[in-house]
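Entry 14. Structure prediction run on the chain below.
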Amino acid sequence: MIDETLLQNVHAYARQHQLQVAEALGDGIHGSVWAAEIKLKAGKSALKAHRFAGPYSRERSVYERLRDAKISKICGLNVPLLIGADDLLRVIEMTVVPQPFVLDFAGAYLDAPPEFSEEIWAGWEDDKREMFESRWPAVQAVLAELERFGIYLVDVSPKNIAFVSSSG
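Output returned:
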C-alpha cells in the first residue's frame, strides 16, 4: 500500500528539481523509493521519501559521509551516490545502482554501535549467518568497511546487501 504523504513529498521534490516520478522501486519500514527521470536529458535517479525525521537524517548523514570520502563501492558492491536531499520533505535523491550493491542506511547508527547485550548480538549474528549462508563472511567484510567510516549497519538483509546471483 502506497503512503500518500510520501508520494506527495516525492512529487514535490521532483517538481522542484525538474524530475518526472516513474515506477516504484521499493517500500520498507522507513520509507518508499521511486525512480525519477530527468526531464531534459536521459538519466534516472532514485528518490527515497522517509516517514520520520530520525531515519531520514541518519540516512542522509551516511550518504554525505560516503560522498565526502568519495566512496562508490564497498568491497566490490555498488553504493548509491547522494545527488540531493530536502530536509522538510524528508526526501533523498541518489543514483540508481545495479547489483551487487549495499544500500538503505536509514537504520544505521553513526559513530558508535548500538548498545545491545551480548545475547542480542549473538542472536542477531545467528540470524544474519542463516540469512546470508555462504555470503556471511563477505557481509562481515562490508560491515567492517562501513565501520571504518563510523557507520554501523544493523538492518542488513539480502534486499540491502545484494550480491550478483549465480543463477542465470
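The first helix runs from residue 4 to 16.
Filed with the rest of this week's runs.
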